[in-house]
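Researcher: Structure for this, please.
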Amino acid sequence: MNFGSGKTKFVQGILKYFGLEKEISSPTFTIVNEYNTSIYPIYHFDVYRLADIDEFYAMGGEEYFENGICFIEWGEIIEEILPPDYIKITFQKDIQNEDYRTLQIETFGNKVLTI
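Model: Predicted structure, token format:
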């Protein structure tokens, strides 16, 4: 994953679906932003600045997994503690057109995720 590849923009699009486009901000310095929707709470993490997984545990990060939908930027930093069922989306900038992105979507586990 790289900087400026569209991770936050992607989450902004999801939140816009729930009518939350005015509340969106990047969680770069807060680590997690919480959004309440009419269906599920949504948690938007940016774990790039964490020193290690212990820092994620210290903030109670794993508790969020059970309570709503989590979008985690730089999730590979905490990949070993992610729940068994998750979707990994890798964003890649297009070399020829800086306005385009390629998304690689991988699913892990057996649970079907529905919204």
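Researcher: Any notable elements?
Model: The helical segments are 7-17, 53-58, 61-64. The CA atoms of residues 10 and 114 lie 18 Å apart.
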